[in-house]
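Q: You know discrete backbone vocabularies at least as well as I do. I have my own habits and do not want them to colour yours. No explanation is needed for now; the record alone will do.
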Amino acid sequence: LHANDVSYFNGGNVGIGTESPSRKLHVEGDALVTGILTAQEFHTEFVSASVVFTSGSTKFGDSSDDIHSMSGSLRVTGSGNHYIQTGNVGIGTTAPAQPLHVAVSGNGGLEIDATGGAPSLLFDIPGNEQGRIRFLEDDTTLGGITYETNGTDYIAFNVESNTERMRIAGSGNIGIGETSPDGLLHIKGSTPNIIFEDTSGG
């Protein structure tokens, strides 16, 4: 070994903290690298360990075909933005059909919990398009709510085979069985009745 020159080993394994090295370099204990560590192929088996990055960036894979699996919990902290650029994200499913697909076997859902202010769910709709909430059963659409922004804005409510039953026009008029309500309340049907029932017993 040369203190101020190149040092090398022609063959065999090198052990630090062990007399029976099983790899080219076998370290038994802690290791500290203050510079750059370069590896053509990197295989790591953590039986029980933590990886702490004081500063720097980490890149996994070089194409979308690379798959990274882990068990346990994933926690992301920090003040910067966290994002996934492409592909779909599945929670509870390995085959997400939408950019965010949450699958549960029981009465699960999506919760927005704010500790201050007003929690919001925003739909940023491009011009002349729709914002939609759909209710499905076994991948068949049963109904939903649609906001239309084609210049004559309205909100439509669909039920029973996804059929529109009520519409609130941009003017404020409400149509039941009518998609172009002419009054504040416009009811259209073969028997367009309005029933008022007194439940007070008087």
